[in-house]
Amino acid sequence: MIQLSLDGKRLYVTNSLLSPWDRQFYPDLVAKGSQLVRVDVAEDGSLEINKDFIVDYGAEPDGPVLAHEARYPGEQDS
Fold first, then answer.
1. Has residue 10 been placed in a domain?
2. pTM for the whole thing?
3. Of residues 54, 67, 64, 71, the one with CA closest to residue 14
4. 2, 9, 43, 55: which has the fewest Cβ within 10 Å?
5. Number of domains the chain is built from
């Protein structure tokens, strides 16, 4: 899943889509947990992975867990 920040400067990417699909097609992902990374968007539109922002949901205390999408405070579904 991907989610662009409201200001368009950060793109958040997870390697998990939907739990039923993950269980069926990616059992190792379910067993090890997913990750969330941030991709910084430059003014010229170029993209760069932010190596200081990588979240490993396999290391969560109640994990491993799957991260599907990021939401921002105040954001509403359309």
1. yes
2. 0.78
3. 67
4. 43
5. 1
DSSP secondary structure of the chain:
-EEE-TTSSEEEEES---HHHHHHH-HHHHHH--EEEEEEE-TTS-EEEEEEEEEEGGGSTT----------TT----
Angle ∠(6,11,78) on CA atoms, nearest 5: 45
Contacts 24+ apart (CB under 8 A), 27-32: 29/66, 30/64, 30/66, 31/64, 32/58, 32/64
Angle at CA 20, nearest 5°, toward 14 and 21?
A: 60
Instruction: Judge whether 24 lies within some domain.
Output: yes
Taking only the tens place, the pLDDT of each residue in 31-77 is 999 999 999 999 999 999 999 999 999 988 888 999 877 766 655 55
Q: Is residue 68 part of a domain?
A: no
